[in-house]
Design brief:
Blueprint: E1 4-16, E2 21-23, E3 26-28, E4 31-43, E5 47-52, H1 58-65, E6 73-78, E7 81-82, H2 88-97, E8 98-101, H3 115-120, H4 131-144, H5 161-173, E9 179-183, H6 191-208, E10 211-216, H7 219-225, E11 228-233, E12 236-242, H8 243-248, H9 253-264, H10 271-274, E13 304-307, E14 310-313, H11 318-325
Parallel strand pairs: 5-10, 5-11, 8-9, 9-10
Antiparallel strand pairs: 1-4, 1-6, 2-3, 6-7, 11-12, 12-14, 13-14
Helix pairs in contact: 4-5, 5-6
The structure holds adenosine-5'-triphosphate, iron/sulfur cluster and magnesium ion.
């Protein structure tokens, strides 16, 4: 069995909102909870998919895993080491080992820099390479991501969408990484280019012995790329497990609704635009307002139930918890 490379334990991430309110003349900050008590494990060699509609917290989790945001509760263990988000060295340790390709390939590339210098940004956390060593590694990685060497002297505006994404990949992988987080790496690309990038990602994973965390809206892409997955809904992780098992028999009503909707909807399987998901419930189970299976217990927030390697946050499986306790 593969080793656990990353453990995410009950993390919550919140953002200060602009609105403040006063209680007895004292100003109180308000927060938006973007990630709510989320736990999952990533095993070495996994391609772990995170799926969820817009605003469900996918990018916030990604950014937390590379230390851009700090969880206000919960813990993250990377290769068995607990990360202290207040320690610079721990954040550096995360950034050296976990690369990220950001959601917006255009906005994440500095338009004033040539490709060579954009890729060089990947060395900002590694001091051990001389300029000439960097230059050699830049040329190597450029070839490995399938970008012509002549593109090193281009500006981002002179590149196609697919080429820009290859530059982002080159910057993330110019120094060795254990995990690469891919935040919607193909959503801005034409369908034909998407397939090229997905195949390139498969090749890079094997060339560099990488573990992927793959964020997408597209359930087809999850099925093609990932072996394990988690389903997010308004900041909560409702189901995790093996991709094949989840597709064959989704346990959580939300996952089942997504899968059923996809059978009858357009083949792009982008549920965000196609599936009308209701507002989350503030009390009890978060999916209560849309769930066709809700019953009395759903007025209370459900806990995670572990069923072998599957995990599901739903009262329907309460009897299984009780049997496990006996
Ligand atoms: N820097 C921030 N400040 C305040 N709120 C934020 C910030 N970043 C994200 N949020 C809020 O947190 C929630 C989760 O956002 P996030 O970007 O993680 O969603 P997402 O699942 O990546 O969505 P998308 O599919 O649209 O990329 C949203 O409600 C968003 O508005
Ligand atoms: S806990 Fe209840 S409301 Fe929530 S998903 Fe399960 S059955 Fe539906
Ligand atoms: Mg996002």
């Amino acid at each position: 069995m593969n080793n656990k490379i990353l453990e995410v334990r009950s993390i919550s991430v919140r953002f200060k909102t602009k609105t403040k309110f006063k209680i007895i003349l004292k100003e109180v900050e308000r927060y938006k909870i973007a990630v709510d008590n989320v736990s999952f494990d990533v095993m070495e060699g996994d391609t772990f998919g995170l799926v969820g509609e817009t605003g469900s917290g996918k990018s916030t989790i990604a950014r937390t895993l590379v230390g851009i945001y700090k969880p206000f509760t919960g813990e993250i263990y990377f290769m068995g080491k607990k990360i202290d988000f207040k320690r610079k060295n721990d954040l550096l340790y995360l950034r050296k080992n976990i690369g990220i390709v950001f959601q917006d390939p255009v906005g994440s590339l500095n338009p004033k820099l040539k490709v060579r210098e954009i890729i060089r940004e990947g060395f900002s956390i590694e001091e051990k390479y001389s300029k000439s060593e960097q230059d050699k590694l830049i040329v190597d990685i450029t070839r490995k991501v399938g970008l012509g060497e002549s593109k090193l002297d281009s500006y981002p505006s002179e590149l196609s969408g697919g080429e820009k994404q290859r530059v982002s990949l080159a910057r993330a992988l110019v120094t060795q990484k254990k995990i690469l987080i891919l935040d919607e790496p193909t959503s801005s690309l034409d369908v034909s280019i998407q397939a090229q990038i997905l195949n390139l990602l498969r090749k890079l994973k094997s060339d560099f012995n990488l573990t992927y965390i793959f964020i997408t809206h597209d359930l087809n892409v999850i099925r093609y790329m990932c072996n394990r997955m988690g389903v997010l809904y308004y900041g909560q992780l409702l189901e995790t497990g093996n991709v094949k098992e989840i597709y064959e028999s989704p346990l959580h009503p939300y996952t089942a609704d997504l899968m059923n909707a996809n059978l009858t909807l357009d083949s792009s399987l982008d549920f965000t635009s196609q599936y009308d998901i209701g507002e989350p419930s503030r009390k009890g189970c978060i999916y209560k307002n849309s769930c066709k299976k809700r019953f009395e217990l759903c007025e209370n927030p459900p806990n995670d139930v572990e069923l072998g390697e599957r995990k599901v946050k739903c009262w329907l499986y309460k009897n299984i918890i009780e049997t496990q306790r006996m």
